[in-house]
Amino acid sequence: MSRSKRARSAPKGAVSSPPRPVDDFPPKYKKLINRFYEPLILLRVLGQTRGGHSTVQEHDTRSLQCTRRRFLACLAYVASNAKRKKISEFLAKLLERLRVIATSTADGDGEDEIATKCIDFATPRIKKEVGLLRSRIAQYHKRSAARATEQDMMLLGWLGYFQNPEALVSICQFAYDERRSTWMKELEQRSRSPRYKSSDDASHVMFNYIRHYVGRLADHIRKPKHLIQHCQQLIFLFDNWTVKGVEAMQATPRPEHSPQTSLPNILKRMLPKDDPKLPEYEGALTVMDRGHHISDGLREYWSDPTFQPKVHAEIQILEQFYNNGLAFEDNDPYIACSKPACFCCHLYFRHHPLKCVEADSHQKVYHNWGPPMINTKDEKEFMRQRDILNEMVKDIRNDALNQIIQRRGSLAWHADSVTGITESVLAEREQADELDSVDGSAPSYNPDSDELFDMPEIDSEAVSFCSDADDPESDSDGGVALDITELSVSQ
Ligand SMILES: [Zn+2]
Fold this sequence. Notes:
With about 500 residues, the chain is mostly helical. It has helices spanning about 25-45, 65-80, 85-100, 110-120, 125-145, 150-160, 170-175, 180-190, 205-230, 265-270, 280-290, 295-305, 315-325, 345-350, 380-405, 415-420, 425-435, and strands at about 1-5, 240-245, 325-330, 485-490. The strands form 2 sheets. It has a two-stranded antiparallel ribbon with strand order 1-3. A two-stranded antiparallel sheet has the order 2-4. It starts with a strand and ends with a strand. Residues about 1-15, about 410-480 and about 480-490 have low confidence and may be disordered. Bound molecules: zinc ion (ZN). Zinc ion (ZN) binds near residues 341, 344, 369, 478 and 479.
C-alpha cells in the first residue's frame, strides 16, 4: 500500500521497446554488466541453492505491522494465481468485497465466499497441483502394490479423497481440514531424509512431494482465511484505494562472451589485484573443474540461446516506488510478493537505496535474473545501478570464493547424482518451483503457520548445466514473472 509523497521524474527503468543490442551501450555499461554476470554465472554453476530458506516471520497478532504485511502477502498470493490480464479486475472486486465484509460484525462472515472466489480464480493452477498430487499418489500405489502394509492401505485410503472427482473447493477444504490429521503426520514422518545418501527416486522424496502438494491445496483456503481475519483490523486501508498496473520493465541485455570469459580470468577478476591467495584459489578451482566440469558449465550458460535476463516482479515494484517517490503505508517499506525472493532479488533489496524490508528468500541463483535497463546516458542513474550491482557482486563473489576455497559441493556433481534424476522428476521439479509460493525448509510443519513444506532437495546441481526451461507458464527462471503488467495497490 502506498501514498504518493513526492514526484520524481518518470520511471527511467520502465521501458517497453524491444531489447537494444549490447553493442549499443557505452563501454563502461557493457563492462559493468559483463563483470556482474561473470561471478553470478560461476556461482550458478557451483550450485543453484545458496542456503536454506530465510525464516518466514511468525505472525504476531498484536502487531498491526505484522498483520498488514501478512494481509498484503496473502493478497499477492491470491492475485498471482491466474492470467495476469484478469488480475486487476479480480483484485478490485476482491478488495471491494473485503471492505464490505470488514464492516460486518459477524465473525467468519464471508470466509466461504472469498475462498470460493479465490479458488475459482486459481482454477488452472489448482488443477495443475491436483494433477501433480495424483501422479505422486499413483506412484505410491504402484510401488506398494505387491507389498503394501496395513498402514499403507489406510494411508492410500485417505489419499483416495484427492482422486475423487470432487469440486476443487471441496478438495482444497479437505486438505485444509486435514492439516493436523494423523495422516499428515504420517506423511511428515515418511518424508524425512534418511541419514545415508539416497537417490532422488527414494520413497521419502515421493512422500515429501505428496505432503507438499496437499499443503499447496490447503493454502487456497488458508490464505483467503487470513484475508478475512485481518480485514477488520485493517479497515482504514479500505477507505481509499486503487489497483494499478505498472509498465513492464526491460532488463539489461545479456552479457557478452569473449575469449577473456574463461574460468582463470573470471577468478582473477574476482580477487583484488596481486592477491597473494590467487594460487591457492587457482589450485582449488582447478581440482573442482577437473572433477566437475565447471568450465563446461560456464560455456553452456553463455551459449544458452534462452539466456535472456528478466526483471523479477518484486524489483519492478521496488523501482516503481523509488522512481515515483511513493511513500509506504505507515512508513513500513514492505513489498509483498506471492513467493519468496530469489538470491539476486534478495541482494538487490539489501543494497537498494530505498532500504525496503528484505524479502524472504529461497536463496536460489537464477542466471536469467536481470537488473532493470537504465538510461545509460544519465550519469546519476548509471551510478545508482553501478553501486547496487557492485555491492551485489561483493556478496556473490564472497559466496563463490568461500565455496571454492573449501572445495565444497563437489559431491553434488558426481555423475551418479545426475543419472539418479529422471526427466520426469526434473520436469516435475520445474512445475513444483512454479507452484511454490514458499517451498520452505521448515524442520517441522506447523499446520497453522504460513511456514510451508519442505521440498525434497533434488540435487539442483544436477541441472546446473541445463538451461532453465523457457516455458512462459513456468517460474523456472526463478522469479515471479511480470512481463505484461503487475499491480500495485495504492491508497
Ligand atoms: Zn528474483
